[in-house]
Amino acid sequence: MANSPRPLVAGNWKMNGLKASLVELSAMAKAYDAALHSKVDLLICPPSLWIAPAVSQLAGSALAIGAQDCHFLPQGAHTGDISALMIKDAGASHVIVGHSERRTDHGETSALVKSKAEAVNAAGLVAIVCVGETQAERQAGRANEVVGEQLQHSIPADGKAKTLVIAYEPVWAIGTGLTPTAADVADMHGFIRQTCERLLPGQGQGLALLYGGSVKAQNAAELMQVANVNGALVGGASLKASDFMAIADVYR
Ligand code: PGA
Predict the structure, then answer these.
(1) Is 116 a residue whose pLDDT tops 70?
(2) 174 lines ligand 1 (CB under 6 A)
(3) Per-residue pLDDT at 3
(4) Given the residues 108, 118, 169, 189, the one annotated as active site
(5) In 3D, which of 82, 76, 8, 72 has the Cα closest to residue 51?
(6) Nearest CA among 199, 63, 82, 202 for reference residue 131
(7) What are phi and psi of 83, to 5 degrees?
(8) Quick one: pLDDT at residue 167?
(9) In order of start, what are the domains of the chain with their CATH numbers?
(10) pLDDT tens, position by position, 76-112
(11) Is the distance from CB of 195 to CB of 205 less than 8 angstroms?
């Protein structure tokens, strides 16, 4: 399909990895051969401290480097923060915004997430906007309502399929080993596709929609073949090259 999004398997290292962990990136780059690159984009988002060294270490490789968060302003008096402009300057291509751990640990609202996503796009980078319901919300039958509301308020007003990726990450599946059924993922991703098409007319069909939450080699094949799933956002299983590449290899 001309319109179908190119798959993306993205790794989020979260607050994991010391300098020595950068060897994993070289191992990933080595395993990411032309045949695999013809099928899927691969991205690792290490702690921001490691973005610049990772980019120089990976020079010449198709393995992309991204950030896990950014401030919504390009510069200023904001101690401890980094901007999308700095991330771009360091050589990264993507920024994750609105991860549930940011929403929970730092009280980030969808309005803030939207301003961050817009800053990412303004810097010329791809924004990966995360959404997902809690277990209580799913049990109350409110999963679509919650995700629909997050989408409406978190995605950039003029988002384009080329520079926006949506990651559906049910909060209860992150780091728990639990995953939704393939049928639940299909329902939610269909709903996200429809909602994005409504919010961004003409762009929804081309958006890459990632599933995230306890993705590993053992469940990746099943999850990645679900309708409207165009890749994965991987936490724990992205720290080791062997685990991450086993997931990517699903697209071979
Ligand atoms: P997990 O994390 O793969 O360790 O469940 C996913 C994420 O939070 O992106």
Answers:
(1) yes
(2) yes
(3) 63
(4) 169
(5) 82
(6) 199
(7) -105, 165
(8) 98
(9) 8-251 (3.20.20.70)
(10) 999 999 999 999 999 999 999 999 999 999 999 999 9
(11) no
